[in-house]
Amino acid sequence: MICISVTPTSRQLAKVDLLNASRQGDLIEVCLDHLAKEPDIADMISGISKPILISCRRPVDGGAWKGTEDQRMQLLRQAIIAGPEYIELDLDIADKIPRFGSVKRVVSYTCLDHALGNVDTVFDRAKDAKADVVKFTWPTPNLESAWPLLAAVTKKRDLPVVGLGMDRAGLTFSLLGQKFGSPWVYAALEQGMEAHPGQATVWELNDTYSLSEINPQTRFIGVVGMGDVERSIVKSLNAAFRITELNVRCLPIQLQKSDKLGKMLDILKINGLIVTPQAGVYLGGLASKLEDVARNSGFVDLLLRKNEEWNGYNTLWRCCLKSLEKTIGVSKAGEHPLDRRNVLLIGSDNMVTALAYGIQARKGVLSVASPNDDDARQTAQMFKVRHVPWSNLYNTMCDVAVVTDPSVKVGSDNTQLSVSYLRPGMTVMDIGNLPGDTKLLEEARGRDCKVVNPSDVFAEQVAGYFKSITGKDMPPEAISPE
Fold first, then answer.
1. How far apart are the first and last CA of the chain?
2. By CB count within 10 A, which of 25, 192, 247, 291 is most buried?
3. What single string gives the DSSP state of each residue in 133-155?
4. Which residues pair with 109 in a beta bridge?
5. CA distance 269 to 289
6. Residue 356: in which H helix or E strand, if any?
C-alpha cells in the first residue's frame, strides 16, 4: 500500500492536492505543518475517498511547524475530532493525547542525524503509548544505515511497523518493506512535492520499481547505485521480468565498503548483484570465484551466488566487443571484423584491461594510450602491445578508436582528446557515458566516422544480465535506455 504525503501551504489548494493524491495512492498523509493558516480539517478531508493520515511535524522531526508546541498539540487534537483514519503522534507527546473514537494512532520516532540503535526499546515505549502502528524515520544513505530500519520491519512483532528512510536510498527500504509486509510505504505525489529530498514519487515506485507487483515471494536482484544508468537498467530488467512472468524484481542498493555485506545479502535472500563501475573494483572481493577477465581487469559488473558461493563476472567487455563488431561489419566471407585492424584503446581505467583481452582474442592489432602515460605503458606491457605516448597520439593512425575512461574529455588541452584525431571511415566507440552519447561521438558522426551507438552497447549489456540471471533471452521490447 502506498501512502502519498501531501504538504499543502494553502487551504484553498489543499483539497486539490488531496483529490489528486487520492487518484494514485492508497493512503493520503496530510502534513498540516506546511499550512500558512489554521485549517478547517474536517472540511479539508471531507469527500476524499481514500483513508487519511494526519500529521504535524516539528522542524526537529523534519517538519515545518512554526507555532508553539501547545498550539501544535491542540491542532492534533482537533484533527482527531475531524475523524481521519490515522493520526501521527510523536513518541514524546503520545501519552498526552488520548485515544478518541476509531482513529488509529501512528506513534512515531524520528532521528534526523543518525541511524537508531535501540529499536526494540523505542518499540516498547510506543506500544505503552497505545500505538496501533509504530513508525521510525531516520537517514538511510546506504544499506548499512538502513539495516536497523529493515530489521524493525521484517521482525515479527505485536504491532505493525512502518518506516520512512530519508535520502535517495530510502527506495531500498520502501521496496523491501513491501516484500516483508509493512502496512504502507511513503511516496511523493510528484516531483517538487517530496516530503524530503530524494523521495521517490508514486509514479516512479510503480513504473520503474514495480512496487505494486512485489509480494512476499518476490526474489530481488540487487542493482548497486541509484543514478540514471542504474535506473535505466532497473526499468528494463523489471519490464523483462514482467513480460516473462517471473516473480523477480530489481532492488536499488547504495553500498559502502563493509565486511557485513555478504551476511546482509544472505538475510535478504539476494543472490545477484549488478554493479556500477565505481563499486565494481571493491565488490569483486565478495566473490569466491572470478572469471579470468574479471580477475585480470580487477573489475566485476555482475555477481551471482551459486552453490553457496559468489561468482564474479565482467560482462561489459563482451557487450562492447559485440556492438563494435556489428558496427564494423565484415568485407569478406569468413573474416573476423577485428582481424588485423589497428585498434587504439584510450583510457586508464579497468575496462581498458578487459577490452584489451577481448581485442587480442579477436586478432586485432592493439595499441594503448592515455593522458596518464604510466598507466597506459603498464597496460601495454601486460599485453605485450604498443604503447602510444599521449604526446605522439596525433601521429598515430588507427582503424578503430575506443575510449573507455569517462575522465577522457574532448578539448584542446594537453590532457584532452582533440577531435582533429577523427578521420572519415574510422570506427569510434566511447563508453564513458553509457547509455548516453558523448561529445566525441557527436563530433565523430559529423566527420563521417562509423559510430558505435551507446544505446546498442546498453541493450547488449542489459540483455546479458537478464540471460545470466534467468537463462532466458531478454524480450527486446523491454529495453528502456531513457
1. 27
2. 25
3. EEEEEEE-SSHHHHHHHHHHHHS
4. 136
5. 19
6. helix 350-361
Helix, strand, or coil here: 253? Answer: strand
- What class does CATH assign to 234-314+460-478? alpha beta
Please name the amino acid found at residue 447: R
Predicted local distance difference test score (pLDDT) of residue 78: 94
Nearest to 432 by CA among 352, 356, 369: 352
* Inter-residue contact 2 to 25 (CB < 8 Å): yes
**Whole-prediction pTM:** 0.85
* Chain centre distance of CA 353: 27
Number of H helices, E strands in the chain: 16, 20
User: Model confidence over 174-192: pLDDT tens digits?
Assistant: 898 888 888 999 998 888 7
Helix orientation angle between 119-128 and 143-154, rounded to the nearest 10 degrees = 40
DSSP bridge pairs for 223: 252, 274
| Separation CA 405–CA 359 (nearest Å) | 17
Handedness of CA 59, 90, 211, 305 (dihedral sign): positive
What CATH homologous superfamily does 2-192 map to?
Aldolase class I (3.20.20.70)
Instruction: For domain 318-451, give the fold.
Output: Rossmann fold (3.40.50)
Q: Do domains 234-314+460-478 and 318-451 have the same CATH topology?
A: yes
- 109 sits in the region (left: phi over 0; alpha: psi -120 to 50; else beta) called beta
Q: Are 189 and 21 in contact (CB under 8 A)?
A: yes
Pairing verdict, β 302-306 and 272-274: antiparallel
pLDDT tens digits, 299-342: 788 999 988 888 988 888 889 999 999 999 876 666 789 888 99
